[in-house]
Amino acid sequence: MDALPAILVVDDDPKILQEIKQMLEDQFCVYITQSPHCALDMIKRGTHFSAILYNYCMPEMYGNVFFARVRNITVATRILLSSKDRTDFLISALNQGGISFFIPKPLVPFEVKEIVHRAVARSQYRRQLRHEQILLKGLLDHLPYGLAFKDEQGKFTKMNELAAIRRGLTVQECLGKTEEEIEPSFKPQELSAFKERLQKEERFVATLEVPSADIHHSSQWFLITRLLLGRVKGEIAHSSVIMELDITEQKMLEAKLQHAEKLQALGTMAGSIAHDFNNLLTTMMGSLELSEQLLMQDQLQEKQIVSIKRLLVNTLAAAQKGAVLTERLLSFSRRKKLSLQEVDVAKQVKENYELLSQTLSMRHASRLKGDKNAEIKESIYLDVRCQIPMGVCVKTDPSQLELAVMNLCINSADAMPHGGKIMVILHKESITESVTYNHQLGCGEYVVITVKDEGDGMSPETIAHIFEPFFTTKEAGWGTGLGLAMVYGFAQQSGGDVMVKSQVGIGTAISIYLPILPN
Description:
Blueprint: E1 6-10, H1 14-24, E2 29-33, H2 36-44, E3 49-55, H3 63-70, E4 77-83, H4 87-96, E5 101-105, H5 109-142, E6 146-150, E7 156-159, H6 161-166, H7 171-174, H8 179-182, H9 188-201, E8 203-210, E9 220-228, E10 240-246, H10 248-295, H11 302-333, E11 341-344, H12 345-351, H13 353-370, E12 380-386, E13 393-396, H14 398-414, E14 420-431, E15 435-436, E16 440-441, E17 444-452, H15 460-463, H16 483-493, E18 497-503, E19 507-515
Parallel strand pairs: 1-2, 1-3, 3-4, 4-5, 12-14
Antiparallel strand pairs: 6-7, 6-10, 8-9, 9-10, 11-13, 14-17, 15-16, 17-19, 18-19
């Protein structure tokens, strides 16, 4: 019985009560009473009746009075019991009590059952509607973000306090008005743009800086979502929803994090530069001090003169290395503009072969000398394979091109601590569709300079960071983390790009793409 819809029947005639109960008890849980006051008590105690049948001519309380009392405390559908000839009672009950159905006496079982079924269905719809209204009110009151609904004319129909507060108004001041009338944060053209975009996309999310409604507070950041709701059947226009999430605190935390990252980067940069320059200055000062001591002697022998010359050469080399480090910093920061000119790539790479090969050999020898555990002491071999003819030119800075190839080769040499072969391959490549390596590379003919090694290789996680300034996997004293950042900046300034292919345990190939000048 508890699972069946509950029906309350109130009539001063016990025969009518029993008759209705017998008609309905197979499909409903039927409560009967001859007292309107007892009926009110049952309703107030919380019994969820789906329908209430009430005899209008109750001596203690007329039907219009009873229904007026229960109208606001229950969703039960109200049904009037009365004689067919008492239309005055029916009209009075309709006006005052808000009845939904009328059952005439004498009772017809089929008619009674049909009306009660319809009344129960209506009650269930009303209960669902009230439940949804309660849910909506709960959401409006307790959501952590502003929520507002607009009808098809753009007028606000519902809004919570957070949405109203952002506009510097109360909820009641906002309802029935359009966004153009009460929105202080956006210009009319901005609101028009929002409407046009919503009609096209039906949903979009935007992060916007919104001036605070309080003049004593700074602006706030909101994640604002605009959404078109489904059309009501037969309607052409949409109603819409605006959701406004305050992300000001999140933005502040992001700003603090960015500031902390900048400070960390500056600290790393300062440490790296200080370390490198300290090494260079130590070499220069030591060489100059030894030269000074030798020069203080009265008569210099040939051997001492040779030593002084060697010390001065070391000093000059250290100064030149400092200049190269400064060049890297300037190139990365882009304060130094490239000296663009036509460069024959094949010619320049071949001319620099001896210097490049010697530099790599000396660096490899220095690393092996400092590695006491090194057992295999093979050499670094440089193999240049030029698959393009002389006369193929690009527009770039020749000194920066030389430095970029040098950096890639040094990285390859460092990735092979026990020696191996480095290949520098030059070839042409035609790009017919725009591709993206690190930025968009347009269609056209390109010279590709690839530096390939047989080293340790890199994981995808490492590859994702190699062009970041000051990122390095090398041990202290062997890298500043600026080399690949400089290569990346150089390629972009020259209108090209950089592509990386690497596999752990197999090796790495880094290619610089430079656009070929038309003949």
